[in-house]
Amino acid sequence: MWKRFRSNMGAMIGVVLLLSVIVIAMIAPLIFSDGPWQMVQRPFLAPFAVDGLPLGTDTLGRNVAAQLAYGARVSLLVGLVSTVVALLIGVPLGALAGFYGGYVDEGAMRFTEFFQTIPNFALAIVLVAIFEPTLTSITIAIAIVSWPPVARLVRAEVMSVRTREFVDAARLAGLSKPRILIQQVLPNTVSPIIVMASLMVATAILLESSLSFLGLGDPNSMSWGYMIGAARTVIRTSWWLSFFPGIAIVITVLALNLIGEGLNDAFNPHLSRKGKA
Amino acid sequence: MTIFAVVVSRLSKAILTLLAIAILNFFLIHAAPGDPAVVLAGEAGAADEQMIEQLRERFGLDQPLYVQLGKYVAGIVQLDLGYSFRQGAPVAELIADRLPATLLLTLTAFVVSLVLGIAFGVAAAARVGKPSDTVLTTMALLFYATPLYWLALMAVLVFSVWFGWLPGFGYETVGANYTGLERVLDIGSHLILPALTLGLFFTAVYMRMARASMLEVSQLDFVKTAKAKGLSDAVIRRRHILRNAILPVVTLAGLQAGQLVGGAVLTETVFAWPGIGRLMFESLAARDYNTILGVFLVSAAMVILFNIVTDIVYRIVDPRIGARS
């Protein structure tokens, strides 16, 4: 499987891009010890106008390169944590629905459907606006709007695995139902969940940046969406202020999507060959 | 089930969903930090004690929670979405004023993205593995990763600021007072950039789906039969593969309606498009919760209505579905 993933050029490009973003996020405090909020020069400096400020300064004279590096931390953190939280909601719900069926399934699916009908970005806006924008509220809001597809996926996977012979064998061996679900069924649903999770991190990063763009970011942490939102009014004179953070988002999201697709092809070689025929 | 029965069952389900959202809204107001009356009044009313008192009385905030809930839901059933103290008008009126602009924008973006997405997807599938397929799929991958609002800003910068080809701001030329055809053309030219930038992300989504679906269907046995009959590739693609491959794309398009409405908030913000998305953005800065929740409810209603329409179209396009259920 790993071999198939490695031979996928797109996926490897994704890994390299994502690793670069992660490294930048990790060493941000080392290179830019002043932090992203410190004024370092006069405002609106173009890229390369002054030595040491490769991307220029923003409307308040802050170092754009430092802001980008710190923004990577927020994007990755929110993307990752909100995905984990969404999995914590979606996996148990989908697993119970798929495994027990009947009323449990009916109830869980109605609940999921309700959340799927609500326009998810609008719900995220409402949640963050009402509970005050902080990293925690943003992360939870994104998780709340992202879990339904997970629940549906896990339910479908569990339903198909449940009828397999080894599950019958486990039942005959006298294992309890919860134990069969956790030890026998769920481990067999891991690969599609991993694929979905990697794509969810990408979507979460887009959502976070959109919220910050609208002014719903955590006021205490620098984020790419905030940078674009703050530079929106000066786009005519200083286009680079909104250009670079956008490129950073595209690179990060693209990397995650490439990795997700690579994982998908690696887990399902049969499907991928069919696609390329 | 006949189409009529489907419509009735879907509509009753839709009403239940909207009621659930209204109840959710109610609890959100109460979950917000601070006095619900102050929350409802927004920042503008926070200073005025008398108005807060009136609000408390009007919403019965001194009464048990279930009475309050009843009053709130009863209000919404009568299309009373509350009052925006910021804008000095009922929320329902504010939304009704701005809804046409949003409908124009989202429907245009939807049609454009569906047509372009299917066209590019079919084109890419027909040239699988060739350079043009690689170019198209790479483009789709890029647009799929691009934030809508950023693409919109860049479009304004390039086509409006640098080249001056298209207006990048507003719904029509202010003060021009065009009438008739001139006005239509004026609005149309203002519509191009917002609709395209909102549509491009979805074009990418539909294109990927259409391409995958075309490739999948082309593996099926009936395609081999058609080939064995001696039909040309072009005819097989158009008459046999496309018709079957298009169905999952339509389903997906229906499911994406919510995203489209969410995207409209961002697009309208960038282009100062006077729709309900822009209204929501303005209300965020003003902490006008009544309006925010009202827009939320109406956008959910739009999505539900849209899903019902897609469902019906789907049943007409594919009669097998009606027969199965």
From TrEMBL, chain A:
<dbReference type="InterPro" id="IPR050366">
    <property type="entry name" value="BP-dependent_transpt_permease"/>
</dbReference>
<feature type="transmembrane region" description="Helical">
    <location>
        <begin position="76"/>
        <end position="100"/>
    </location>
</feature>
<dbReference type="Pfam" id="PF00528">
    <property type="entry name" value="BPD_transp_1"/>
</dbReference>
<feature type="transmembrane region" description="Helical">
    <location>
        <begin position="238"/>
        <end position="259"/>
    </location>
</feature>
<feature type="transmembrane region" description="Helical">
    <location>
        <begin position="193"/>
        <end position="217"/>
    </location>
</feature>
<keyword id="KW-0571">Peptide transport</keyword>
<keyword id="KW-0653">Protein transport</keyword>
<dbReference type="InterPro" id="IPR025966">
    <property type="entry name" value="OppC_N"/>
</dbReference>
<feature type="transmembrane region" description="Helical">
    <location>
        <begin position="12"/>
        <end position="32"/>
    </location>
</feature>
<dbReference type="GO" id="GO:0015031">
    <property type="term" value="P:protein transport"/>
</dbReference>
<feature type="transmembrane region" description="Helical">
    <location>
        <begin position="121"/>
        <end position="145"/>
    </location>
</feature>
<keyword id="KW-0472">Membrane</keyword>
<keyword id="KW-1003">Cell membrane</keyword>
<feature type="domain" description="ABC transmembrane type-1">
    <location>
        <begin position="72"/>
        <end position="260"/>
    </location>
</feature>
<dbReference type="InterPro" id="IPR000515">
    <property type="entry name" value="MetI-like"/>
</dbReference>
<dbReference type="GO" id="GO:0055085">
    <property type="term" value="P:transmembrane transport"/>
</dbReference>
<keyword id="KW-0813">Transport</keyword>
<keyword id="KW-1133">Transmembrane helix</keyword>
<comment type="similarity">
    <text>Belongs to the binding-protein-dependent transport system permease family.</text>
</comment>
<dbReference type="InterPro" id="IPR035906">
    <property type="entry name" value="MetI-like_sf"/>
</dbReference>
<protein>
    <submittedName>
        <fullName>ABC transporter permease</fullName>
    </submittedName>
</protein>
<keyword id="KW-0812">Transmembrane</keyword>
UniProtKB/TrEMBL annotation, chain B:
<keyword id="KW-1003">Cell membrane</keyword>
<feature type="domain" description="ABC transmembrane type-1">
    <location>
        <begin position="99"/>
        <end position="314"/>
    </location>
</feature>
<feature type="transmembrane region" description="Helical">
    <location>
        <begin position="246"/>
        <end position="272"/>
    </location>
</feature>
<dbReference type="GO" id="GO:0055085">
    <property type="term" value="P:transmembrane transport"/>
</dbReference>
<dbReference type="Pfam" id="PF19300">
    <property type="entry name" value="BPD_transp_1_N"/>
</dbReference>
<feature type="transmembrane region" description="Helical">
    <location>
        <begin position="292"/>
        <end position="314"/>
    </location>
</feature>
<dbReference type="InterPro" id="IPR045621">
    <property type="entry name" value="BPD_transp_1_N"/>
</dbReference>
<protein>
    <submittedName>
        <fullName>ABC transporter permease</fullName>
    </submittedName>
</protein>
<feature type="transmembrane region" description="Helical">
    <location>
        <begin position="187"/>
        <end position="207"/>
    </location>
</feature>
<dbReference type="Pfam" id="PF00528">
    <property type="entry name" value="BPD_transp_1"/>
</dbReference>
<dbReference type="GO" id="GO:0005886">
    <property type="term" value="C:plasma membrane"/>
</dbReference>
<keyword id="KW-1133">Transmembrane helix</keyword>
<comment type="similarity">
    <text>Belongs to the binding-protein-dependent transport system permease family.</text>
</comment>
<keyword id="KW-0472">Membrane</keyword>
<dbReference type="InterPro" id="IPR000515">
    <property type="entry name" value="MetI-like"/>
</dbReference>
<feature type="transmembrane region" description="Helical">
    <location>
        <begin position="103"/>
        <end position="129"/>
    </location>
</feature>
<keyword id="KW-0812">Transmembrane</keyword>
<keyword id="KW-0813">Transport</keyword>
<dbReference type="InterPro" id="IPR035906">
    <property type="entry name" value="MetI-like_sf"/>
</dbReference>
<feature type="transmembrane region" description="Helical">
    <location>
        <begin position="141"/>
        <end position="167"/>
    </location>
</feature>
